[in-house]
Design brief:
This protein is α+β, with helices and mostly antiparallel strands. About 50% of the residues lie in helices and about 15% in strands. The chain is elongated.
Length: about 140
C-alpha cells in the first residue's frame, strides 16, 4: 500500500531564494510525517509535480464537501462495509457489489469519490483515478 504523502509545494524560485528560512519548517514537517505511521514528507517544485496528482486533486475537489452522514439510503455505509470486507476493490466492483440498478449505481458513485476526497478510502495518488483504480481502507 502506498504511503500517505505530506507534500510541500513551493515555487522553484522561492525555494531557491528562501531555503535558509524554510529549512526549519521542512524539518518540523518531516518529523511530523515520520511520527505518523506510513507517512512521508516531500518538498517539490512546480516542475516536479506529477500530472496525475494535479488531475486527481482537481477531480476530487468537487466531492470533498459531500456529507457522508445521515444519507438515505445509506450508500456511504454500505460502500465502506463492502470495501472493508473485500480489503481492496475498484470503484466499479464496489458499486456493482452494493447496487443492483443503474439508478442506484449513479446515486452511489459520488459517495465513492467523496470517501476518496475525504481520505476515508485510499488510492494510489500517483496514478490517474477512475472506475478501475484499486482502492482500499487505509490502515
Amino acid at each position: 500500500m502506498p504511503p500517505c504523502l505530506l507534500l510541500e509545494l513551493k515555487p522553484r524560485k522561492a525555494l531557491k531564494e528562501n531555503i535558509d528560512q524554510l529549512r526549519d519548517g521542512f524539518y518540523a514537517a518531516r518529523e511530523y510525517a515520520s511520527s505518523m505511521q506510513g507517512w512521508r514528507f516531500e518538498v517539490r517544485t512546480e516542475l516536479s509535480l506529477i500530472p496525475a496528482l494535479v488531475s486527481n486533486a482537481n477531480f476530487l475537489a468537487r466531492y470533498h464537501a459531500i456529507s457522508l452522514e445521515d444519507q438515505f439510503p445509506d450508500y456511504p455505509k454500505r460502500l465502506f462495509e463492502e470495501l472493508s470486507a473485500r480489503g481492496r476493490a475498484t470503484p466499479e466492483i464496489l458499486i456493482t457489489a452494493c447496487c443492483s440498478t443503474f439508478e442506484e449505481k449513479a446515486m452511489a458513485l459520488p459517495y465513492v469519490w467523496a470517501m476518496l476526497a475525504q481520505r476515508i478510502v485510499a488510492f494510489d495518488i500517483y496514478s490517474p483515478i477512475d472506475n478501475r483504480s484499486p482502492i482500499w481502507i487505509p490502515s
